[in-house]
């Protein structure tokens, strides 16, 4: 079993748990509810990107996948001022990322949510009439390149795979799902 196959199998329960708990119907029922969802994603990404950047195995690869600026742009488009965005709560506590392999495991969750984001974007566009230019940039982060970006991330994961690293990568992915679940599903 490859590392990607193992990640999919061993994180399936955590993935399903967050998907069931997030209540997407309610979170995109109105612009206000959608803005609140984006604010929660912002709080996660802002904290996570700051923490993970220090340990990322390839800083340029990592930076090209950061989403905080897209979230800030969406939030501004939806009526929050830059001062309001700076004051949004940050996800705490985050899981420790003691090694580059842990960052890759955590990125598996973040990059995987980008794939799901394309589906969410279609729902947001249909229900709220928002596009990447009018408040849905985060969920459309890679545009038409979403599959290529996932494939390149998968290749990076497989390059890092080793018997020693794989347990750390899978453990970090599972913990990231747990932290993200608790953060996104908590009532602010």
From TrEMBL:
SUPFAM superfamilies: Heme oxygenase-like
GO biological process, one term: heme oxidation
Transmembrane segments annotated in the record for this chain: none
Pfam families, alphabetized: Heme_oxygenase
InterPro entries according to UniProt: Haem_Oase-like (IPR016053), Haem_Oase-like_multi-hlx (IPR016084)
GO molecular function: heme oxygenase (decyclizing) activity
Name the record gives this protein: Biliverdin-producing heme oxygenase
Source species: Microvirga tunisiensis
Upper lineage: Bacteria, Pseudomonadati, Pseudomonadota, Alphaproteobacteria, Hyphomicrobiales
């Amino acid at each position: 079993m490859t590392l990607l196959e193992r990640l999919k199998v061993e994180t399936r329960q955590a993935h399903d748990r967050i998907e069931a708990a997030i209540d997407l119907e309610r979170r995109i029922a109105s612009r206000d509810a959608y803005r609140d969802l984006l604010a929660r994603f912002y709080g996660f990404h802002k904290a996570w990107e700051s923490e993970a950047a220090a340990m990322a195995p390839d800083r340029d690869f990592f930076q090209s996948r950061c989403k905080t600026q897209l979230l800030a742009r969406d939030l501004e488009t939806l009526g929050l001022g830059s001062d309001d965005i700076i004051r949004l709560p940050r996800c705490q506590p985050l899981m420790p990322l003691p090694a580059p392999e842990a960052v890759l495991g955590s990125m598996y969750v973040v990059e995987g949510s980008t794939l799901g984001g394309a589906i969410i974007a279609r729902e947001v566009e249909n229900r709220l009439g928002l596009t990447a230019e009018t408040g849905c940039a985060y969920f459309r982060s890679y545009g038409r390149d979403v599959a290529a970006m996932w494939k390149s991330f998968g290749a990076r994961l497989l390059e890092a795979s080793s018997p020693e690293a794989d347990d750390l990568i899978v453990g970090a992915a599972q913990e990231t799902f747990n932290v993200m679940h608790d953060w996104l599903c908590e009532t602010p």
